[in-house]
């Protein structure tokens, strides 16, 4: 039982990271019907921005304030990056065929990965300590302060996002654009502005995930966005892509499943489990756990 609870804590911590990244996939898909394959690389950029900001603060003692400052800085930088990607890469081809958008997304992803290797260097870097560290042992289950921080911050951001979407005027406009882009435009909603805000929010959440993973697993590299981005995409599909609660549920399930496989079977299968789940979902419930079947008129 102790082993199960330990793996459950580890899985919730990892799943929270996947959930934050998956939210960006599901939000962009909701408004544009686009799978933004560059999103995992935005997460990587967020981790690097957090790394360099934390180095600027290395003379200060690790504290909650410095960690918060680093996270907010990374979120702001990646929000601007998300707006830039949408404006320069996706908006010019928005009315083109879906395949054109998909190829553009893959191209942006490759561009970010190669630029990161050129600018940051191909060698991995190690995150400095941002906050005071402590371990807690409860009934034989070891919980680190980093895990508590990751879970708490992730759920706080998810709750704030849910409040923003449901209660604010911009959030209501986002839901309208998600329902019908053309109808929203006819109703006077600035769809370009709403789409840019969606990219900014999704990218900011990915940056927060990048900083949190740097705190928990301090090794970062220019290609770290590929595995995390793909698994977060699987999480979005599992929960029902386009559904914000579904993305959170999918991320937690994927993270927990991955850790349980490592704990009870072998680390060899940690990547296979996510894609095995993807295949099962596409075969048995293509709309995802919380997605809805959408009928299209011919």
Describe the structure.
With 298 residues, the chain is mainly alpha-helical. The protein has one domain: Orthogonal Bundle (ABC transporter involved in vitamin B12 uptake, BtuC). It has 11 helices and 4 strands. It has helices at 2-32, 39-56, 64-90, 98-120, 145-167, 169-179, 181-186, 191-216, 225-239, 244-264, 270-284, and strands at residues 125-126, 135-138, 141-144, 219-220. The strands form 2 sheets. The protein has a two-stranded antiparallel ribbon. Strands 2-3 form a two-stranded antiparallel sheet. A hairpin with a 2-residue loop joins strand 2 (135-138) and strand 3. The longest helix is centred in the first third of the chain and has 31 residues, at 2-32. The termini are far apart.
Q: What is shown here, in short?
A:
With 298 residues, the protein is mainly α. The chain has one domain: ABC transporter involved in vitamin B12 uptake, BtuC.
Uncertain spans, ≥5 residues at pLDDT below 50?
Answer: none
User: How many strands in all?
Assistant: 4
CATH architecture: Orthogonal Bundle
Q: How many structurally independent domains?
A: 1
CATH topology: ABC transporter involved in vitamin B12 uptake, BtuC
Mean pLDDT: 87
Helices and strands in order:
Elements (H helix, E strand, L loop, with lengths): L1 H31 L6 H18 L7 H27 L7 H23 L4 E2 L8 E4 L2 E4 H23 L1 H11 L1 H6 L4 H26 L2 E2 L4 H15 L4 H21 L5 H15 L14
Helix pairs in contact: 1-5, 1-6, 1-8, 1-9, 1-10, 2-3, 2-4, 2-8, 2-9, 3-8, 5-6, 5-8, 6-8, 9-10, 9-11, 10-11
